[in-house]
Structures are given as C-alpha cells and as structure tokens.
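thread: overnight batch results

M.L. [08:02]
morning all. the overnight job finished for the chain we discussed friday. pasting input first so we're all looking at the same thing
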Amino acid sequence: MTTPLSFSKATPGTPASYRGTVPDLRSVHPLGDQLPGVYADDDFAQRFVEGLDVVLAPLFNVLDCLDAYFMPALAPEDFVDWLATWVGAELEGTEALPVRRYAVATAVGLHRLRGTSQGLRGALQLAFGVSPEITESGGATWSARPLGGFPGSPRPGLHVTLRVPDPAAVDTHRVRAVVAAARPAHLPFTVEVTGPAAAPSPYVPDNPYAPSAPEGT
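M.L. [08:03]
and the structure it wrote out:
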C-alpha cells in the first residue's frame, strides 16, 4: 500500500515541511479504464485523462488510508496536533512527537480519572516523565466494632513530591498548573520538586561463622 506522505529534509533557508506527494504515484482508479470503448485506443484521450489521474491519485490514496489519520500512532505530525484539540489533550506545544502521540492516545482515559490520585499521577507522569509521590488527607478503613477511629486527617490537603534528576530544569509553575487541573477540586495542595531519593544502604546480615577477636585484644 502506498502512502500520500513523504518525509524529507528541508533545503537550507526554508522551513521544514512534512507534507508532500509521492513521486510517480499511480491512481488506483485510472480514468482511462472507465472511458467508453471508443476511447480505449485514442492516444490523445488516454494521455489527457492520465493528467487528471496525477491530480486524483493522492486523493484516492488518502481516502483509502483515512483511518490511519485518526490513529495517534500513525497520523502525520501536524494532524496529531489537530487531534489533540479534539480530545482535549493538554500540551505545551514543545513536547517531542512520541509524547504528543501518547498524550492524544491517553487523553480520554485521563479525563475519566480526573480528580483521582490515579489521574493526577498519570497527568504528572505524562508531563514530566516521572511518577510523583502523592500524600493526601483522605483514607479508608474498617472496624469490627462500632465507633472505630476515622482514617486519614480531618484537615484536607494534598502534597505532591516530584523527584527529578535536575530540579532546576523543571518549571515549578507548570507542575502547580498540572496538579491544579488534575487534583480533586476541594483539596488545597502543595508541590515540591526535588532530586532523586538517596539509595538505601545495602543490608549486610551478621555472619555467625565469622571468627571472633581474641580475648584481651
């Protein structure tokens, strides 16, 4: 199956373009084959409609592959940005193409989870590439006896910690904006951007067979 798109480097001094035509693309429905029989051997008529085939070939090809234009993994780059507006994917516009494709593919699912811990985690992971640490005041528990203790904290709150390799490279205002959009609407929140957690020291068990030090030393 052919494709109506060609990807090539732009010439110096001209903006990059990701749309074009495929050289020598043939129409899947040549007009010459559909002319009345009297024109089958007419050289002028056949050459005339061949010129129209060149114009119609990309159109037929796009229609044959139309479903691919609506698949985030296959759509052209500029079409991905348009699809993002359809599904309400929240992008800055500077993300790499694979990130934008993933954002479009997961946007509807994240909208369903908005206001939940899972939705907040997914939004932050999509925006910054790391999974956050989320601490919230809510909780759930059970008790076998009446008048059991209440879970969580009576004071509502949400704290998000984002551990990244270079905290200075992360825009804290953007982190706050993502949290504000994806958090439960009634919860006040705080945000912390910090470096990776220190790796715990390896556990070395005591060796009961190690020789003991001589007495008196």
